[in-house]
Amino acid sequence: EAQLVESGGGLVQPGGSLRLSCAASGFSFSDYDMTWSRQAPGKGLEWVSTINRYDMSAYGSSVKGRFTISRDNAKNTLYLQLNNVKTEETAMYYCSNGKVRGQGTQVTVSS
Q1: What average pLDDT does the chain have?
Q2: What average pLDDT does the segment 70-98 reach?
Q3: N or C: which end of the chain has fewer CB within 10 A?
Q4: 3-class secondary structure for the chain?
Q5: Coil, strand or helix: which one is 14?
Q6: How many angstroms separate the CA atoms of 25 and 2, rounded?
Q7: What is the residue-wise DSSP string for 89-107?
Q8: How far apart are CA 73 and CA 53, in angstroms?
Q9: Residue 49: CA atoms inside 13 Å, Cβ hemisphere, count?
């Protein structure tokens, strides 16, 4: 059974940094494009970034230049480095392989 478990969320000050992780199991991780999305309180799911099986990445316009997606196929783990975060980026962050989504990790940006 495919499973994704996010971690690394927490409280961070505006302008700060955080690294999220997503541990994958139960499927061939290296064969899948992987995606980070987020959902802020009271809002819909927002696409953040995708990295394909060839290590090519794409970003939403609001995070481009500040967030970096990466993957370690040997560890079956997806990452999202968040830099210079903004208060409006407080949200639950999810990873997905297109078929399964994790339970999310909460990021709170506040001073």
Answers
A1: 97
A2: 98
A3: N
A4: CCEEEEECCEEECCCCCEEEEEEEECCCHHHCCEEEEEECCCCCEEEEEEECCCCCEEECCCCCCCEEEEEECCCCEEEEEECCCCHHHCEEEEEECCCCECCCEEEEECC
A5: coil
A6: 6
A7: G-EEEEEE-SS-B---EEE
A8: 9
A9: 22
